[in-house]
Amino acid sequence: MSVAICMTAFNANAALEIYENDGMSFSADGLVNAFYANSSIEKTDAAGVKSDRDQSRVRTGFLPNNIGFNFANQLSDMKIGMRSSFWVSISDADNHRDATPDDLGTGSLIDIRQFYGTVSGDWGELLVGKDFGLLNRANILGDELLLGFGQTSDFFGLVDGGNVSFGNISTGYTYPFPKSQITYRSPDLNGFKLAVGLMDPNKIAKNSSEELPRAEAELVYTTDLDNLGLKAWVSGAVQSSEIEDKKQNQSGVGYGANVKFSGFSLTASGFQTKGLGHIAGLDHLVGDDSIKTDGYLVQAAYTLDSNRFVLTYGETNVENTNSILDATHSNAGIAYFRTIRPGLTAVAEYNQTKADVSNSLVGEENNTISIGAVFTF
């Protein structure tokens, strides 16, 4: 299945028109997936003691199951739109036998990641509400494993976690966590599209002060040259926090490029952050500016008829200048996607995830084989 269809799972490009009349429309889109995954994990703890275990799961893949609803109304030269999407994990089995009775049972982790309105015209679009962030947005949307499984590092508790697998979050990019925002997107300007947003800031601590909102931006360029398609992007984020009269500045930049030709898709992307995305690559968990993170992701994919083959490698490095606990997380994988029918894709995947927390003898090698199916409409 193409990356364009993968992006549909994140964006309001609905596949099913429910109502359309006189400029007004209502549509829906959805995704359901489930994977069988078997992980073989070897770990070394802080005391240098080695251990290993095998774990089988039937769980959600990288994308949670979701359903979205879209409304649009064309009013002369202005279009008003709204989108809401609800995301659900099926990885809610009895994971911990020592849990209290209140913690057992099904939870589903219903998550509202998009709930926004838009106003658009020849001048561009204004989005108000909750949507994914702009920093590293194109990095994650361009991930060839978006409809697959990806990494499940036991270092982050992902093997037995009740949420999703992680794709290449923390092994190549940070997650553009959904945020309350006011974002302007420009019209197409000779292949360039610019987005600039004011986001609800992320607090460094309960008693921290953020005088200004978080600012994020993204610039994307797309073009077709004969039989070659090119997409390139750069994104960024800045915010400031103050705690106990000490000011902390958080910032990040993401970038990448994708080239498509003759069935091949080649992607290279990277990022650097300061004080952002230092915990499992989640950019809403803000730290102080002594924590620096950088990473990259390289992928090659080939599509032949209904078959898509993917090779991937991603790595993230975390440096804490106030601590000896630096870390490197990486993921290497191979995946096969087979479109059985439009809206039904079978996936087989192998990932080797490694974690190395230097100077503390903490290490992990996690080999995971996963097989699953993805339904979309």
TrEMBL record:
Residues 3-356 form the Porin domain. Signal peptide: none annotated. GO terms for molecular function: porin activity. It holds the Pfam family Porin_4. GO terms for cellular component: membrane. This is Porin. The lineage of its organism: Bacteria, Pseudomonadati, Pseudomonadota, Gammaproteobacteria, Alteromonadales.
